[in-house]
Amino acid sequence: MIIRDRHTGENERLRGRFVIKPKKLIFYTVFVFAFLLSGIIVLLDVVPYRMNLVSLLVIPLLLLYGIRIDRVTIAFLLLTLIVLVSAVINQVSIAQLLLFLRSIVFAFLIYSLVRLVVTRDNIEKIIKICVAVGMIQLPIVLLQFMAYDRLPSRFTTGMSISHLDFSFGTFHFKGDAAMTFFLTLLVIFLLFDHKRNYIIRHKWFVTLWLTFTVLISNAELMKLGIVIVWAVYAIRYFNLRTLLFGAIALALLAGILILSGTLDENIEDFSHSLSSNLSTSESKTESFLSGGYGRGAAIAYYLNSEFEWIGDGPSRYYDVVTKKYLRGNTGHIFAYYSEVGIIGLLLSYSIFFLVAFPIRGEHIRVRWVGALMFMMAFLLSFTTEILPNISIVLIYSIVAMTYLIPEKDSLSIRVNQS
After folding, report:
1. Which domain does 110 fall in, by range?
2. For residue 384, is it within any domain?
């Protein structure tokens, strides 16, 4: 018989409580920087900071636990190969190649982090934390709207931030697109995963709250995205109850928007943005070719140009160091098509597609959540670089893992059996 000292046993239990698990520590560190701290760090401007470099914290984990070779990893490798081919054929510099590859590395590290850390045991907790982060965005965005006119000139002038950019919540500086993408993916989960969204209490209130936050933001494309999500929901689950609830929810949202004056501003901003971005005038095209922003001019230019199989070379039209655009490719779809061609662009989309539809057992899981997630990522790619933005890749990879949450029916069976 082994006799253990009472105090020794107690010390062992205490040590067990404070064991630091490197995977979880790094995951939550990246999570906090991606979704909560980056914006305020940039605003304070105390230390040089690049949010995406936080992903490099994942490298020790890969050295410790290894890299899992799956469909997504293969897609990353194929994309890297095409970028190398484009770089060699177009004779770009090593520096240009490495600067372009950084976006692929950042995205792969974040995807690998989620695959390493997120399991059946913690996915429910992680989603609940994500919802909590989503819920605090609305009051913070409203405070940002009210605080803009009181900002010191070093913010508005020195950092070149307009009123439209100052609605990023707790996300990265000028990161309203990433914030609204985050909220939209949570809305998709709450609306379409009926077997697993039971983990969120008062889900309809939460869903409307998150939807309202997206609608009052300045990310125009994600406003369109959230409307598409609700339209698909109405069509998919059309019945009298859905119609009645939708009408009530729409009336409440419209009433709040009208009373706050936000509806008129949103309609005016959206119409102005639509007409401006879809403009294909000669002056807009010249501005685009000189590095100016113009979505309509970009689409018109590439549709009337020679087809790009491997592009003009990585980092050909954007200087990462000076953050200067040599051509107005302000969006993933335009940057990738022009620099690494249609092959590189399709491979980059295949990464998001494969993440959204994971294999479980021997079957590919096809869910409404995955389909709408991919649709939102594709939509966002017209205005935002979706691969190098770690907050976008992180929430996308997390929500894709929600299939790990036990289904409500199977949970009830387990409880009854026990």
Report:
1. 21-238+308-405
2. yes
